[in-house]
Amino acid sequence: MSSSLEKETDKNALSPDGDFGQQAPQDLSFQTEANTNLSRNEDKKSTDASTGQSQTPKPSFLKKIFPPLFKNKQGSSGGNQLPPLTKKAISTEAFVALAIVLLLFIPIAIIMGPTNMLGTLFANAYYLLIEICFWIMAIAVVVGALSGLLSEFGVVSLLNKALAPLMKPLYGMPGASSAAALACFLSDNPAALTLASDRRYKRYFKKYQLATLTNLGTCFGMGLIILVTMLGRVPKDGSILLAVGMGVVGAFLGSIISTRLMLRKAKKLYGTTQEAEPRDIFDDKGLREIREGSAPGRAFASILEGAGGGVKIGLGIIPGVLIIANLVMLLTNGRPILNEYEIVGIYNEAGVLIGTVNGELIKTVQGA
Questions:
Q1: Could you tell me how many helices (H) and strands (E) the chain has, helices first?
Q2: For 121-129, which contacts have Cβ atoms below 8 Å and span 24 or more sequence positions?
Q3: 3-state SS assignment for residue 237
Q4: Looking at the whole model, is its pTM more than 0.90?
Q5: Domain for residue 238, yes or no?
Q6: Residue 68: inside a domain, yes or no?
């Protein structure tokens, strides 16, 4: 009896083809239907995720009855959305902009000639790129490499701790800001921009303090070069040390006034609590972030990263210098690049007046 039941069970359980018996087709059909529904749900979810639509769409009959309720902010009911800000393809702005350009360049072209005007623009742009922008980029690269190295091995943290009692009362700035003043003193003003772009350096500042960093740094720009140049000149009537000392004191006092004035303005814009760079937990525990690897590897990586930041800053200033400075040189009788003609000077009389006043002032100071 038991053997016959076992044979019947085996016969119903497996078919000669290795499949399940009589109950198998029902199980497989149920499983196939479940898989089909699951795949449909997954396809629907993926489609909703890719299109950014909600998984619970609004009823279609409501869209037909009240279509304005389902329009997006740009006024379209679906498909490609318009940009956030749009205007008519042809508007008054086009005519105004064209009129300004023509009024600016047609008088200059009449005086200089179109060929000379274009030649001046291109020659000035080349001069500004080679002599000015690349020079600023070189400073930014060198100072960026140095600042990256100092930040990696904790010198900036040391300056921030040691000079905080001096910088905070005088300037209202953290001690790390002295690194910007020192970098500008040793090189030139763009050094402050390189430091201000360093992510780890910005952690020492509030946002309003970081905006003021350029005022502090530029007060000492090219200080070392000027000191060495002036000390190398030996006047006939005595030493020049007094004049150099007065210059240093003037730069120091001017930096305090300039920084404090900028701090007042920056506090109104950014407040006093916003951080320039989000701080990590280890910043509040007296720790600093370092790179992985040995000391030589960390030094090499920090130098390359800092120098790369300097290159980005140098490239970023090229458009502004070539366009704005070029236009200023063209309008103010600036440096003549080509000798065949003279650059038109709309503000030439004002320039002569300022130059005369400065010249007389210099003569008065030298005579005294």
A1: 16, 0
A2: 121/326, 121/330, 123/337, 123/338, 124/325, 124/326, 124/329, 124/330, 124/334, 124/335, 124/337, 125/322, 125/326, 127/335, 127/337, 128/321, 128/322, 128/325, 128/326, 129/318, 129/321, 129/322
A3: coil
A4: no
A5: yes
A6: no
Residues ≥6 apart with Cβ < 8 Å to 182: 220
Helix or strand (DSSP H, E) at 79: none
Q: Measuring CA to CA, which residue among 127, 102, 79 is closest to residue 336? A: 127
The parent domain of residue 293 ranges over 112-367
Judge whether 154 lies within some domain. yes
And the tokens for 308? 């790369």
**The tokens 């103010």 sit on which residue?**
332
**138-163 residue pLDDT tens:** 988 988 898 889 888 988 888 888 99
Residue 218 tokens, joined: 């530029």
pLDDT tens-digit profile of 55-94?
Answer: 444 455 545 544 544 454 444 444 556 567 888 888 899 9
Distance CA 229, CA 224 (A): 8
Q: How many domains does the chain have?
A: 1
Give a yes or no: residue 139 inside a domain: yes
Give me the residues paired with residue 332 across strands: 345
